[in-house]
Design the sequence.
């Protein structure tokens, strides 16, 4: 939808009484800045998936995340990448009026057809998680049917 341009209802000569609603909908559907900020605030991360003859290569963008905070599971072709973070600020000041501890979690799950669970390798390098998932050969289940 990023290529679609909404009509400019803000400068419309005709007022229908629903201008605020139309403007809110336009902002929701057509404003890339709002959409990008909203996605990052709900706890998600970007992934790229490449496929070749032997394996899948998954790249997850996780800047600032430590490897201890990442969980990777593969179950029947479903690759699940999760991140759980807890940020504690230890200050020696007393008499706090207000103090926060930040908890956040992110999760992405993707299906990789014919993924082999043995031999999966993962590496975190400069904020990018690289996961290599080998493929297993599909059994040939096709057969020719003879006509009687």
Sequence:
């Amino acid at each position: 939808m990023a290529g679609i341009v909404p009509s400019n209802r803000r400068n419309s000569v005709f007022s229908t009484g629903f201008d605020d609603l139309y403007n809110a909908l336009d902002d929701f559907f057509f404003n890339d800045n709002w959409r990008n900020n909203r996605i990052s605030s709900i706890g998600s991360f970007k992934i790229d998936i490449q496929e070749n003859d032997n394996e899948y290569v998954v790249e997850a963008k996780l800047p600032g995340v430590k490897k201890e905070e990442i969980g990777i599971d593969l179950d029947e072709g479903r690759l699940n990448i999760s991140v759980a973070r807890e940020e504690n600020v230890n200050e020696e000041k007393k008499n706090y009026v207000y103090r926060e501890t930040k908890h956040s979690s992110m999760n992405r799950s993707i299906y990789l057809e014919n993924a082999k669970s043995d031999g999966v390798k993962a590496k975190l390098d400069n904020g990018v998680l690289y996961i290599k998932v080998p493929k297993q050969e599909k059994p040939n289940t096709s057969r020719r049917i003879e006509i009687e």
